[in-house]
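Table S5 (text form). Sequence records supplied for joint modeling of the two-component complex.
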Amino acid sequence: MCDLILRPRISADFRYALVLVTSLYWGSVCVAQPTQYNQQIRPILAKHCFTCHGLDAASRQADLRLDVRTNAIEFEAIEPGKPEESELIARIESDDPELVMPPPDTEHQLSSDEIQLLRRWITQGAKYEKHWSYVPPIKTEPHKTPTTWSSHPIDGFVIDRLKEVGLKPKPPEDRLRLLRRLSLDLTGLPPTIEEADTFAADQSPEAYEKVVDRLLASDAYGEHWASMWLDLARYADTNGYEKDRPRTIWRYRDWVINALNQDLPYDQFAIEQLAGDLLPQPTNDQILATAFHRNTMENDEGGTDDEEFRVAAVKDRVDTTVQIWMGLTMGCAKCHSHKYDPISQKEYYALYAFFNQTEDADRRQPTLPTPTRLQKEQIATLESERATLEQRYNQDPQGFPQAWTTWNSQFERHPLWFPLVKSRFESKHNVTLNQDDQGTLVATEELPDKDIWKLTLELPNDKPLTSIRIDTFPKLPGGKWQDKNVALRELTIELLEPGKDPVPLKLVRARADFSQAGWEVNKAIDGKNRAGWAFSPNAATPHCAVFDFETAVEPRSGQQLRLTLEQEYGNGLLLKSFRISASTYPSQWLMAELDAEAGLKTIFRQQIFPATKALHTQVDAKKRAIAAVRGGIPSTPIMRELPLTQHRETRIHNRGNFLDPGESVSGGVPSAFGELPESAPRNRLGVAQWLMQAQNPLTSRVAVNRVWAQLFGIGFVETEEDFGTQGTFPSHPELLDWLAVDFQQQGWSHKRLLKTIVSSKTYQQSSATTPKQLKIDPRNRLFSRGPRFRLSAEMVRDQALSASGLLTQKIGGPSVMPPQPKGVWKSTYSGDQWKNSTDSNRYRRALYTYKKRTSPYPAMLTFDSGSGEVCQIRRVRTNSPLQALVTLNDTAFVEAAGALALRMETSAQTTREQIANGFRWVLIRHAEPAELDRLLQMYESLQEELADGKSFLQSAGRSEGDPRLVAVANVLLNLDETLMKP
Amino acid sequence: MNPEIESNRRTFLRQTSSGIGAIALGSLLGDTAKAARPDLPHFAPKAKRVIYLFMSGGPSHIDLYDYKPVLVKRHGEELPPEIRGDQRLTGMTSGQKAFPVCGPIGKFAQCGKAGTWISDLLPHLAKRVDDIAVIRSMHTEAINHDPGITFINTGSQIPGQPSAGAWASYGLGSANQNMPSYIVLLSQGNGKNPGQPIFSRLWGSGYLPSNHQGVLLRSSGDPVLYLKDPPGITRQNRRAQLDDLAALNQLKFSSSGDPEISTRISQYEMAFRMQAAAPEISDLSNEPESTFQLYGEDAHLPGTYAYNCLMARRMAERDVRFIQLFHRGWDQHGSLQSHLRAQCRDTDQATSALLTDLKQRGLLNDTLVIWGGEFGRTAYSQGKLGNGRDHHGRCFTTWMAGGGIQGGVSYGETDEFAYNIASDPVHIRDLNATMLHCLGIDHERFTYRFQGLDQRLTGVEEAHVIDKILA
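The corresponding structure-token record, covering 1453 residues in total, follows.
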């Protein structure tokens, strides 16, 4: 029974309660009992002795270790069986300030109870045990004492403890309350009245199980449980430090929701998030999962060293990984070997070495395009529609060949393009150009470094010219210039007429079959010499560019065109062999990518022949639609391993300082928790496999404890974040282990685990309590009644929206901005603004609310949700006046009251019925007559008291109706019972 | 409180004097005790409350407090490399080819009976130097704002730790039944506008229960978020609603027996009182004209530093435990001359007015006032000579005054370039230890168990109370 002794050191708030529990059993019961190292002795040694006589060699005094039995005996600190001969006892009992331990200046002092325990322990042989959580869990049988209460294993363990303290379990909770509890626990939402009535009416033995299955299968399940995971993953929509710029990573949030809804086994869930990118042929979704560790903060502040914040992020990943999966705090070992838990500084950096090999470095990259399911479906549909249309388009419909022949014949007289004939050529460097009978111009000399050419061309004077075209042909290998690219930086054209000033002609709509990145063809006519048209790395193929005259040129006799070709980039990047042509046809026929002759049929098909033209327009529309969807695909930061050759060397950071590197270390895992599996790769994937292997004593315990805490408000191990030697001892060690092993045996199924727990009678007990019970089990650590505690920040909001009928049920998508008071966001150095949604996004579930780390959504912060800056293992529940102000006055809740009142108003004839209905939508159970009386009395007295009901209605988002009902609804949403899990 | 509302026919306390009302009232009074640690204070406190004037951005110790004639003499000369040493510089000046010494932009004089050196940029404070203890040997490891400001406010460069104010709230609870124990006010100076951002982490509660996080007293809209009842709801309406709510909750209590219900009722009652108390704090209609002569006309304008100083005094009068002003704009990378002067103009009068005012009301005896930023600034110029100064964590100046602190004291010295500490270094851990000491708290024993560790504001490394400045 002494394992009930929970040392009162969690927090002052809880001390009183714990002292009450412990004091009941202390003393008389324990005197004759054998001492237990893990529960009783280690905590004393850890608290008072291990700092100087423990694992950390650097701070170890006198070379004495008290955490290792042989060392302690060798040192004569402990003489098993003989406390009087044990130096340990002599020292802790000494009056001599020179000798007494712990030294007076440490301000550690052992109580006489603690000293007595240590004496008894030594008398009994000073037996050491491995810390309980470092020994793999074993499934033991419950029911030490027979009971008729329940055959459920959980109940067996629970009732054993209840009997020890003389408590009986509570009867089952009222069915409607129970359903509300179950719905809130599994989905974060209350049930509907229809669901409640169905359940209440279903007297079959499977009724409860059916509901459990239905809730576990609902989409809302994944949304609800994602909230807990997102706290752990320190998910947020901004970078965190200083400027706190926006970050697009919501696809990761949706991954979590989906993974939970698919019931991805917990081991796979872990492996994909930690190392999905390292799996063989990973799917896009598995890589997306690695955004988990890209939730670390980034610093965009001016003058920062990226490496400093990359290192901080990697450390955060190590700490978070160990926190989430093993419930241990690695943080201490950054600076020195852990003083209480078996993790040396070297082991810390060995684990760090595995995480130190990703590409990211305090910047957004690398990212992965991560289309949503909807986007994928849209693209697939559009692509298939496009393919069908294209197929039809490529077939020659009836009448096509004849029409084509007719249309094509016009080009025999007037070709689409005709080469222009050179009349004069000027070069600053004496280049000469020869023209062959195809119209091709060839520079004969070795090209100069740079040059400006003026090329005058004859103009045929029959038809208006619409466009001009340049064809370039590859340069032959050899010669002075290695680079065969061309850089036409600027092209200008003038119209020459004898006796007149040259008239500049404006060119528009430049297009080319290919342009070099940064050297797009339109830059050749932008009036600037900085860049122009070039075609590296495709210089070895012919290219073509087309420019339209802004106004068609109507040539008159004697006129000429003068082209100025600015090619002053240097390195001989000049045209060598090219042709200038002109066209008299509509410019939309003149496509640079089309070969001048063969392209005609394409033009005819696309633009002339009605049937194919129509199809072409449709294909084009599909292409544009596809491009639009693709353009909206979010990119998500992901983990990407550096190539082996670029792996970073990892060195210990002396005293945690990255600027003070010490000994070099290679990847490894803390040896106290088992080796890397033999088959595991030596990288993050190996770490993930090591965490999830069955021998890992902590992983499954930590996981089930966390889930239990969500349902019961407190875990078996209250310090969910610390399963190490400094953490609290579990209230029900055998039950914790039973669940931990069962979880693994059930294939790490989160849904199965939940079903197991909620199927217990322990869970289904009434939450009502009595003074006697409160005295013996004040915090329900023994589960002597059903869980009753305040809803989470998310549930408080979601419930109000759901009960009032406002809730928008939409899974996933970018984070949203429900109403938030003006001025909460004061973004500096950025235009980021909080814009209250006015569409359906105003009423989305809380988990979709945009989370800015430096300024989290205040209503949720008030209800203990975090900022997402670091991994949050549990939220400490508070009860504050500011919470009252939120649910009374926040727009979201006032609007919910307005909507709820509207529902009430239209649901029945009499006010009493309307109020009764409202009560049910919020609390699911039926109101007691006394409750209805009170609410009705309130409603009636408001007749004279609510002077400005119209304003109140408006603030509740209503233009007409009964403001008194809104006031009643406002109260309903603020009832203690509403805010609590029943 | 409006007597009409008090005597409302349905006021639940009267109506249910023998029922849950009594319980609620009991727990209401118990709440402050519950929020506070029973083992605190460790010894008799000299200060009951703190007013922390946080100067965000890194005010220049060189131009304001740390007088070095050598800097004047060698203005424009290269800072000797042996002085600069291997200090880590920010990316903003690490690439500079030259590091010319830049003398202070104002003139220094010795002031007060103690002869404390102070710049003429702070003429008002110069008259109050005998009330303050100037610490010229502050230092921090951080060189960028976010880590720096997080460090000094939470004791760690890495986010996730509770702020100093949250620690004080957690440890000592509230002495005011109507207001939160930790209140934060923000203002922006004209020096560098906008100054670098500040964020809720700086007054966050970290792993402590979230009711200890700082509550922002806003200068526009509701003074406290969600404070105002919806339009159309009068105080009487709200009173009546709360009475009904309490009565219904009482019904629930009788069937469920959960004592948390009475806590909930008491929290709603405190919310109701806060709705009156918070606007009352910012209602300056009863302040005499002399107040505004003292603090300056800006004190009429919500959101200014002067206004916030006046608010701080009003909250101190009402026993708010920890009052923290964040004033932005002290980040003078450029426009040193004009921007630093503007910062001083915005703040000097009000800061010293606050000291004067607290003193004349007898509040300075038990109110600890702290003035300081996250780091100092370099003795060398950022950019061309006289343009500005980069961040400097190796030394900077902070001062303390009031409850527990000796006035007219200077502590710690820097070298002749105000670049390195010459004697009596004070780490920001030491500053926090000293602050807690004034509140009657031994920083080593004031711990909170989290992640298997006894966490504390001063962290795991050694920290020392600065005995020599204690009264």
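Note: Residues 1-32 of chain A have pLDDT under 50 and may be disordered.
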